[in-house]
Amino acid sequence: MSVLFLKRFLSRPRQVASIIPSSKALVRKVIGKMDFAQPRVIAEFGPGEGCHTREMVRLMHPDSHLLLFELDRELASHLQRDFHAESRVTVLNTDAAALPQALAERGLKHCDYIVSGIPFSLLEPEKKRGLLRTVFDSLAPHDDAAFIIYQITNELRDRGHCAHFPRAESEYCLANIPPNFVTKFFKTANGHARNGKH
Ligand SMILES: C[S@@+](CC[C@H](N)C(=O)[O-])C[C@H]1O[C@@H](n2cnc3c(N)ncnc32)[C@H](O)[C@@H]1O
After folding, report:
1. Which three-class secondary structure string do you get for the chain?
2. For residues 125 and 192, which has the higher predicted lDDT (pLDDT)?
3. Which of 71, 133, 136, 186 would bridge with 167, disulfide CB 3.0–4.6 Å?
């Protein structure tokens, strides 16, 4: 178990929202929804201590970019240390809402994937609406592009918060504490489903 993660939860429970990092089974389900065969621009919201990040880095094409948005300073410093030798990874100790500026500053037009572990259900309605609009607008207009989120509830889908995405698919991961829904919101109506193993 990550002691750092537990410490950060105890310090900011509503922001970190989980006492332990995601399980290997959950990471596998999330990562299995992405195709790494080509160069990708990926944004990760709330990487925590980096359990999903490590898998993406392992699988990513050499010309990919991975932008990490981690609000917690100590977790961001930990990521900075872990990935300092990895030129494809940028650690940003900032709110996920800064995604458009982060892309523009790097001359990147869009993301192919946005992966999120942040507790959307605890965000103020206005902030949640704004961030979900930013996510949609930041995704590239092609059939692979998707927003992939893992959460205790499936409220983004069930309550219609992501109704601006034309298609979604969900599955449940019991092998995590607590169990999580994994939902993939596709940018296009013909978005490619992928539940692969890497
Ligand atoms: C439930 S933890 C997930 C951590 C990790 N991804 C995992 O799967 O174990 C949520 C993480 O999101 C971060 N976070 C919460 N709100 C955020 C925001 N608005 N922008 C960036 N990071 C945020 C927290 O600091 C925490 O590290």
Report:
1. CCHHHHHHHHHCHHHHCCCCCCCHHHHHHHHCCCCCCCCCEEEEECCCCCHHHHHHHHHCCCCCEEEEECCCHHHHHHHHHHCCCCCCEEEECCCHHHHHHHHHHCCCCCECEEEECCCHHHCCHHHHHHHHHHHHHHECCCCCCEEEEEECCCHHHHCCCCCCCCEEEEEEECCCCCCEEEEEEECCCCCCCCCCCC
2. 125
3. 186
